[in-house]
Amino acid sequence: MKFQELRQDVCQTNRALAEAGLVRLTFGNVSGVDRQQGVMAIKPSGVEYNQLQPKGIVILSLETGEVVEGDLRASSDTPTHLLLYQELPYIGGIVHSHSTYATCWAQAQRQIPCLGTTHADHFHGPVPLTRQLKPEEITSNYERNTGKVIIEYLSAEEGNPEQIPAVLVPQHGPFVWGKSPAAALENAIALEEGARTALDTFLLNSHAEQLPTILLNKHFTRKHGCNAYYGQED
Amino acid sequence: MKFQELRQDVCQTNRALAEAGLVRLTFGNVSGVDRQQGVMAIKPSGVEYNQLQPKGIVILSLETGEVVEGDLRASSDTPTHLLLYQELPYIGGIVHSHSTYATCWAQAQRQIPCLGTTHADHFHGPVPLTRQLKPEEITSNYERNTGKVIIEYLSAEEGNPEQIPAVLVPQHGPFVWGKSPAAALENAIALEEGARTALDTFLLNSHAEQLPTILLNKHFTRKHGCNAYYGQED
Amino acid sequence: MKFQELRQDVCQTNRALAEAGLVRLTFGNVSGVDRQQGVMAIKPSGVEYNQLQPKGIVILSLETGEVVEGDLRASSDTPTHLLLYQELPYIGGIVHSHSTYATCWAQAQRQIPCLGTTHADHFHGPVPLTRQLKPEEITSNYERNTGKVIIEYLSAEEGNPEQIPAVLVPQHGPFVWGKSPAAALENAIALEEGARTALDTFLLNSHAEQLPTILLNKHFTRKHGCNAYYGQED
Amino acid sequence: MKFQELRQDVCQTNRALAEAGLVRLTFGNVSGVDRQQGVMAIKPSGVEYNQLQPKGIVILSLETGEVVEGDLRASSDTPTHLLLYQELPYIGGIVHSHSTYATCWAQAQRQIPCLGTTHADHFHGPVPLTRQLKPEEITSNYERNTGKVIIEYLSAEEGNPEQIPAVLVPQHGPFVWGKSPAAALENAIALEEGARTALDTFLLNSHAEQLPTILLNKHFTRKHGCNAYYGQED
Q1: Residue D230: its chain C contacts at CB < 8 A?
Q2: Could you report the predicted ipTM of this complex, rounded to two decimals?
Q3: Are A168 and A102 in contact (CB under 8 A)?
Q4: Nearest to B189 among A25, A135, A138 (CB)
Q5: Are D170 and D132 in contact, with CB atoms under 8 Å apart?
Q6: Which residue in B50, B63, B54, B47 sits closest to B181, CA to CA?
Q7: Among A190, A201, A233, whose Cβ lies nearest the Cβ of D108?
Q8: For chain C, what is the total number of helices (H) and then of strands (E)?
Q9: Can you list the pairs that B131-134 forms with residues at least 24 positions away whose Cβ atoms lie under 8 Å?
């Protein structure tokens, strides 16, 4: 069986998504990509996380989206993931979840402001909200069009998918990415904690201020870029 | 011992109800039905979930409600379940719980609006609230009358028990059903998550909008009906 | 070692208090009484629940409060428990905790209204708030005076310690009792869930109504008194 | 290997910090000090708690902040810890976390009021908020300057680091200390519970009152000082 490492990585990160408390039932999926081999790998649709095995992970062509290997049906959200991999060449993993607090912001149709340093460690500013899909974008190619509105947002001036590796799709939930499936999961966990504390912060102070730019820059660059000094890697 | 499969199914789903965090103490019960044999099976009253055994499950006649097999007293909510099975011939399992957030909406006497796609995956619109029981419906045959107000609601134009497999009874809690006990439990878990995120969404945006019909239809039909493409079953 | 059964019962229920999530650190204690032998038994002060052993439980005279058996110092709240046992001859166990949501109501200095049937299953009406202690009641014999304001409340017309087996002490937390330590713990768990759902219900509907008397009576008498039909005991 | 006891203590308390639910990912760190040997010990940067070993703990000179022993890079927050040890000679352990509810108060830029007796058991009054760092304090020596604003607050009239062993840094999170790492962790757990109940108390009563001084003194002195009578130690 080819793609064994990719399968194991994606399988394990899907399980870790559930263990991190970001999903109930089967409301979420993790994918990964192997750009050299030209494939992406994703969770099969509707399979419970604790029963997921590497052999159940579905392998698809990065170019055409056709199944290359796998007996199970791929996640229904596969076309969204595929488009993100096609359009964002520097990402290696994607997490889609309906994690409780991030979903609340998506349902409230509000971006998540950057109110604290933990948020700033992972996201260089607010986590934005895409536009709503139009009726014709819902009725046909819904999942690919979900990817399209994400890319549309990121292509506009304000979006920066490397510095703010997540968006909220309104009335739906977050899509989060990173250099690898594990990095995407880390961002998804940070997003959920940021979403949770931001909500409760507003209950205490409805005028809570976002981080000043200088503090935002300080925390983000502690962990990212050539001058990072957080963690053990250089 | 007859009805062994039904007993095991109902026992296991009652345990899974507790493991899913939907009950505290003994505040909830799952039942199942075998229409060919003309019986329903339900949790015994007041028994702790982790001590529940298949042999403790009580078997009753679907027609008369009389106990067919079982040494323990059936759940006090049995007459509610019985009436639902009698009136809704296509359901195979029922979950009654006092899960925290669904109960809050029942206590607030508000229906749960459909604010997100996860809700729409399971419920084709808001989860409704029945009317309150009248004094004479409380003093005698209380539990059967609880079933009666549910059926009364579902019989009216707006109720659709196949597309919205749950109701809230005011100041009480949710009743949820499905094709099987496991399907009812899945709906109960989705209901609780929908109730939770809807509450917190309103804290962020008291004017949060329900899903437009086209998006509601899209998500519900992804998982239900002849054009469903979610999961592994065809 | 005498009082072995009482020690084991009280030890186990203290551990169960922690397992039920009602305490953090060592913020709570369970006691029990053996009226025939004229003693009460209580958790030692400041000992962690998972390290508690039956031999660590302190036995005191029900009449004088003097230690009868035990090498450890009794909980600092012992004088409160003692007075409650002396004044309420029909109770067999007491739980004092700072469980999160019950504490919020105590800190808000509001009684917990009866908004749902789960609350009504355990408490025949709102869970009341005692008066604040006076300065001279705080500076000397603080813990015994805490018991005194509880008894003072219960002795007044509205208090009914058999039908509403809990009170909140303002800015402090709940005291809960029952026929046995286990029954007191069950009431403490029900209180916490009632406190939690009541808070969130008010966020959804600040005018949420209490249960009508007829529904309150129905649920309370399903579980209590000579016509009870909940559970397996007759 | 020297400093073995200190390493084990700090390692174990970092693990306990995660087990207590006060951190997600690697958002927190515990340190300890050995003043006789002139060193402090702290978590390595970015290492997961459940993979932490005593040998990974970094030992630094209390005087110069230089690494004395250890192959890993010390926590990026080390300069904050170091300054606190240098300026507060009676503390033996420090916990820095981004625990959910304490962080909400920090993000709301509000001190945590003392609304209940559990808070008063650990903190002799509100848990204060330091001033914000100035731009020039962020751009260079950020972590040491974080310590500086804490010490600046504590040096002013109102601060009392022995009686109120915690502060919030605005838009960031809490720093908590104690006589030992374990004592600091106990204070951090109490802080989080106080922060949580204070938030929910304000949802029930936006005018909830702080404890009167006499009750505050009573509870704090039950656990601290020469007349303490809580716990097993004299």
Answers
A1: 45-46, 76
A2: 0.94
A3: yes
A4: A25
A5: yes
A6: B54
A7: A201
A8: 8, 7
A9: B131/B170, B132/B170, B132/B171, B133/C215
Q: How far is CA B212 from the centre of its chain?
A: 25
Question: Per residue of chain D (234 residues), what is the pLDDT tens digit?
Answer: 579 999 999 999 999 999 999 999 988 999 999 999 999 999 999 999 999 999 999 999 999 999 999 999 999 999 999 999 999 999 999 999 999 999 999 999 999 999 999 999 999 999 999 999 999 999 999 999 999 999 999 998 677 888 999 999 999 999 999 999 999 999 999 999 999 999 999 999 999 999 999 999 999 998 888 888 888 865
Please give the Cα distance from D46 to D56 (Å, whole number): 12
DSSP code of residue C10: H
- Report the 10 Å Cβ neighbour count for D212: 14
Distance of alpha carbon B153 from its chain centroid, rounded?
15
Residue whose pair of structure tokens reads 């029930």 in the numeric block:
D204
What CA–CA distance (Å, rounded) separates B107 from B172? 7
Write the CA distances from B71 to C231, C232, D112, integer angstroms: 13, 10, 55
Between CA B140 and CA B136 the distance in angstroms is: 6
Rounded CA gap, B69 and B61, in Å? Answer: 9
3-state secondary structure of A91: coil
Neighboring chains of C (3 or more beta-carbon pairs < 8 A): B, D
Site of tokens 């200390």: D177
Structure tokens at C11: 């030890």
User: Which amino acid does the sequence have at D59?
Assistant: I
Is the CA virtual torsion D134, D139, D142, D145 positive or negative?
negative
Q: What is the pTM of this model?
A: 0.96
Rg (C-alpha) for chain D, rounded Å, is 17
Active-site residues of D, by number, are 121, 230
Q: How many residues does chain A have?
A: 234
From chain D, pick out residues whose CB is under 8 angstroms from the CB of A231. 45-46, 73
Q: Per DSSP, which regions of chain B are E strands?
A: 28-34, 39-42, 58-61, 67-69, 93-97, 166-169, 173-178
What six digits make up the tokens of A9? 């990585």
List the beta bridge partners of residue A29.
Answer: A96
Provide the 10 A C-beta neighbour count for residue A122: 28
As a residue count, chain D comes to: 234
Question: C-alpha angle B169/B119/D197, rounded to 5°?
Answer: 70
Q: Find tokens 């702290």 and name the residue.
A: D42
Distance CA A95, CA A81 (A): 9
